[in-house]
TrEMBL record:
Record-level Gene Ontology MF annotations: ADP binding
Xref: InterPro entries: NB-ARC, P-loop_NTPase, WD40/YVTN_repeat-like_dom_sf, WD40_PAC1, WD40_repeat_CS, WD40_repeat_dom_sf, WD40_rpt, WH-like_DNA-bd_sf
Name of the protein in question: NB-ARC domain-containing protein
Start and end residues of each NB-ARC domain: 455-583
Cellular localization per UniProt: Plastid
Amino acid sequence: MVSTARASSSVPMADGVSECRKYGLPAGEDTAAWATLMRPCVGHLQQIKPAGMMACVSRLTDKRTVTAMSIWLHCGLHYQPRPPAKPVCTPPVPGDMPPVNQPEKGCCFFPLRRDESGAACWEVRVFRASPAGELPAVAGRWVIELVHLPSRGDPLRFCAASEVDAREWHRQLRMRAAPLVLVWTRHVGVAGGSGGGGGGVSPALDGPAAARRLLVMDALTRGAGHLVATGALEGVAGVAEFVTEVTQKEASNLAAAAGPVVGVALQSVCFAARVFAAAQGVFDAAAQTSADVDDLHKVCRRLLVALKDVRDDADVGAAELLHLLSRLLADVEAAAGELHHLVRSRRQRAWLACSASCRGVDVGSDLGDRLSQSRRNASGLLDELVLALQRQTAVDTRCILAAVGPEAQLAAAARVGWQGLPELPDDNNIFNDWHDPTLPAARLYAAVMQSGATAAAVVGAHGMGGGGKTTTCLLVAHKVSLEIDGQLRFPDGVHWTQSSRHVGLGDVRAQLCHLATTLSGELVEAIDLELAIKRLRAVVKDKACLVVLDDVWHEPRAVPFVRALAHSERSSLLLSSRRVDIIHGCGRGRTVICVEVGERHGTDAESVLLTHAERGGVPARDKTVKRVRRAVELCGGLPLALAVFDSLVRGYALTSPHEGGWVAALDQVGSHQGSLLTKSSGVDLEYGCLSECLRASYTALREDDDDRPLRIRNFRALCVVRSKEQLPWPALAALWNVESRAAVAVIARDFHARSLVSLRGLGPGEALSLSLHDLVIDFLAGVFETDYMGHAACCSLLVERYCERNGIAAAGEKISLGRTRVALRPLWLIPPDGYVERALPHQLVASGAADELDLLLLDMRFIASRVELAGGHCGLYRSDCRYAVGVAVLDDVATVVEGAVVSTGRALSAQLQQAAWEVAVRFGSLLADGATEADRPALTYLCQSARAYLVSPFVELLGASRLLVPLERRVLPVSDCVQRMCAGFKESGGLFVVTANGPNAEATILNVWDEESEAGVTAMEGHVGGVGCLAVVGGGASGTPQLVISGAGCALRVWDTEYWSCVAVLEGHTKAVCCVTMVDACGSDTPARLVSGSRDGTVRVWDAEGWSAGSVAVLEGHTEEVTCLALEDNGQCGSRALVASGSKDKTLRVWDLNDGKCLAALQGHAHAVLSVVVVGGDGSGTPAHVVSGSLDGTLRVWSEAERWSCVAVLEAHTKSVDHVAVVRSGACNEPTWIVSASEAPFVKSNALRVWDIKDWSCVALLEGHTNSISCLSVVDDDVFASPRVLSGSHDKTVRVWDVAAKSCVSVLEGHVLQVRGLEVASGRSCGKPALVVSFAYTDNVRVWNLAGRSTRVASSPHAKAINSMTAMGDGGQDCAAVQLMSVSAESIVEVWDTDTWSHVAVMPWRHQVHRCIALVDRNGCGVPTHVVAPMYSRLLFLDMAGTCLAEWCGHTSIVVDVALVSGADGRAAGRLLSASPDKTIKVWDMDSGTCLDVINFPDSVKQLAVLDAGKSGSPVRFAAVVGPDFARGPHVVHVKSLGHASTRILGSARKHAFDSVAAVGGGASGCAPYLVSIFCDGTVQVWDWQHASCLRVFTEPVSWRRCASWRPRPPMGTRRPSGVLGSGGAAPVNDAAADGGSAAAFEDAAVLVDKKGACALVDCRQLTLRWLPGPPNAASVCCLPGGRLAWGLRAGGVYGGQISL
């Protein structure tokens, strides 16, 4: 029996019903079936393959194999092998495609293209194999066969489980072969051209963003007329925003409303756009493909919107349009199928394009060509659609073109950020004489109009502020755009973009894209700055345009425009800046013409003055030539001063029209001229003329009308404004004590008319704000120089009025802070308005309320508000602390809060609770340990405010458990694994840290943390690829700018540290760059050079001044990777510049960079060279020595004096020498010692070795680290009498060594993971102490101040993480204290006293424990006598002295968990359960050690939890976590009873593994009613396991690690102190009363620990989850009798506490 169906058919028209039946399509009203058809179809089949490579041989032709396959039917057929499992074959069901972040082997793809014009692309056949047929090996099985047409190549065959399953697969395949036009005819009903008025089903969504998406979805279903009416697509410009807003859920809703293929098409196009967007930055081919997909998306969106509005009476009918659109979307669907395969196939490795924007999908030319053709087809179809619509009504035409026309995209792009040419101010306000070639405007015009060889690449206008640069450039721009000569010179137009001091690199990228969009007429987008430059360069190459870049403050903001226009011979760049060096720097060797725009002189200045003075038709009767010239003289020709003087003339002329205004203005300005020489005006002497004008205008405020006192007071109140501040209207309303925006606008306009202020947002609905020119601010400062109290009163009044307007009461009773009493207002309640939140600390200090600010900075409520305002980091709070004087602990407070809030996952409110808890506990310990008297008042108030801020539940530490104030100065957040790091100080004195982050061993993200920024950590734009090296070069006394160099792949990127822009990309290496160093400049003849070493075996030298694209020299000689570089410290300019390079080819080479010659090849090492330094040769007359460390475990010394021969072999290390450093000492800072260290694991000694360079002898071993040394550095700081060496280790510490004293002076503890790298940021050039920065994989980056105030001394040697803890006893009848046994990561077993929380003993045995050990009490006295400890696949029965009494064998894999249960006779602890990944749990008799039973499970057993130990004679019941190894695949919980074969399974299979389960509750019955299970994906489930009912599911954005509970409940009898969990005065966790101090208050609770070490409390009765402030970085937790808890920390140590409510 054979059933065959071809996948194509002619398009149905008359007989549409029969055609639909042929393809098996659902009924039109069956919405659910259509939604199902949209989703992927998944299932399992067995693929039939030939038997081996030689299947073509005749004797093997009948041999076949069947392989289990997972099948996904979506945009084609995807299949891949799967492990054998039952059922082997399944029917197709709706499902999801596999995730793209887990590429797999063996992914295969069979394209299934839809019908096109009656041509069949493939066919499907279903038949039953017979013994005599083609497939005798599978005789009797039902076969599904797919073959491509017309070639009929090798068929693809699968076996199904039954005929029913095979028919269902056949039906699904046929439905997905249906032509799209048939689908629309059947379901959407567009073939007849309904006109677009049909209703639709819209998704129910919440929130503003969702409402907007609702409009888009509704418009797609109702047609273009509704779209235009609602304005749903207003501002939606391009694929990126639309892709973001069309979610998976909405696509499903769209399928139900408008047909599945609409949703499929959108989903396919969006998916393609996301994939290719990630690839745009790498390959031009992928970027072009991305543009094709982008265009496809836009066209499809417009077509789908307008499709139903096409009527059959149009010249181009709906049927033909449907054919064209069906073909277009079939192409898109086929491309989407290929993309699905690309991103999921490990072989293709294309999944990298989805996981990081720095990787590209190397699409083949075939796919790219087909997408390009699809784009052309879509454009043609759009043209046809527009023509059809134009032939309908005029109203329809206007609506459709407005909604879907291409010009709407360009207009929206322009609205995003590109500014067109601004209009000139009123002609009456501007004077210019184009016939005067000496004027700035004429000179600029002549410069930009030059062409050919004389043309300048950059034309610049420079001058001081207020000089008229912007107006002059605007004059030139308009003249070029309006006159014939300009239009001929620049036929592609004049384009204006506005820069400013605050423009960032992201803004520059957007401006470049918008300029490219304007010039090309097509939407241009780029994911980074480099790609934006490349895109604009390609667009402008053959263009002739003038680009104006106004008000450039920073050179890196203009350089991208210069680079983009560099290859356009006919285009020019005109830019304005206050600094001429910026303009010349932008030229970078090209022709630059600079024109100064500044003071006006002679008739030019007089004309400008008259133009302004007579603005608005207000003539002054007393105007004379002499008076005009006198005014120009007083104004010094400064345009801003001329404008202010003119405002005076107009003001006097309006008040006294018969007398005029010139005489009064001259008198007013002239009266202050002499005072400039005797007292400060607040303005530099260079701007003295402006000061006179401002003072006169200020004086004139007093003379106008009856409101003059108020006007003067309002202007004087503006003294609170600082440079570059924008005051919003609410701040101005508070400052001027008015109520409305309108009243603020009246006052502000008055000052604006007098040229005293600048205003923004004067239009209706705009945000009004006011700012002052820097010179006006200086003037106001001079006004208040003799009236400080007046300035303080203004600042105080501003804060008071903010309080009044927000209902904040005046300060109540004063608070004691040492010897002073301070009135504190709750200023944290002031709502932010964009100004007050930043200005408040300054205003308090300026108003004389510095004591109140000090108290605020110690109040946890204010601290929390600042962290919330900053978005979850401490940048704003640290900025506030700079205003405090005399409060020494604030830096430490900021560090503690920083460390608590940098972790991700918890809500910010929970992080702030943790911060308050740590502040109270850590500084409370400091108080108890004896803080200085000066600090005690501040610390006392700080701790009180932190405790008052806490909300229960939280932890009270017990006994000796104490958290100390951290040693580190800063804690920087880490979003991923840090692989590389560098640090330094900026010229301004601010610290910066740059990290390269990435998963596994490949860094992909470059982050920069800048101390001077309040924005926290931000990504550095433009970086692409994995980072192989990262270094800070230049700066200080080197004579070169400070730069950060990052080696990414084969290229080096050079970053400016002031503005974090990429200033150069150095390409030339053919393999990854491994190391870099900088050679400083030597006079004007020898420029600075950058030297880089690579895996390609070459050393390249780069020009560090011009940053030319190619390297200056290529030093070749090494045959393998260059691993290290070292420079000769020349000290002063010399005739040579030596560089030593080490390589994996076992050699070193010494190079002279001045001539590029290799001076020597040093051979002798037996293995790769890993480290190298150069000693001597610094101009002092001593010969140079090269010291190298190698994998062979030796250091070799090579002497220049001995013709670079090896003069010493230093053999002390037993393994590789990974780190070598030079230590200098003495008055001359001469090299004295060499320090070496090894990173190799498992060495006998982890000591640093110190070598004396005089005789190369080992003079000291610096011992202290307990694990291998990962990094080494030298601190060069004058604050230390003797040199310091720092070493970071895998023991999680950084140690500071005094090499002269040969001792460790400090241990820097705080990291919870292995220290992987450290950097020393030298602050010598900016007068700052050196800082040490260290990183440890995913742990936070920490900054240490070696010379700063330390709150504690170095502690004892570091301990490893505590992996598990077990209570020793159950507390007895009176809940007496028990002891605790802990096991660390290094298998050390320790005992702790939980009464005093002190360390008791270290057990004399070590065993690897996975989750817990079993403690046995053979004497019945509550004290353990024996231990059962898992040891790999065995169980060891030990006494407390560590003697092994017995070994229980039987498991074939490691034992992961053990638990004691009652014996068969009811005797407590009579049996032991052991769980293992060998898929069994074994039951052991505790007396004899025999295995009583083996319980088998279908997969590995990961953990067990005893639900009922059988103490009351009830059956023993337990839960087991069962799933595949390595936490891959689904895990489930099995509940079983000993002696019963039945199993109860809780929950369905999940993709994330269980990390832990815990039995909760039970009380006196001993049977726990609840089971809590936690997942790695952040899910928490609470089960009533007896009824197999899931009571509650919690989801948190964390990864859970551990779970523990208080079970069984301890006996009652002893009261606990009030106020803690389990006491008589505490609120219970659940409904049960804590009667008489009963422990029932917490018996139904469980404690969870996430991967970051944070804790949460789950109440199984109340079904609540609350985060629990407590000890940070917990690795394990144990619940103890009496409601107490024990935490084992990741950094080592055990803490005890009790939950407080």
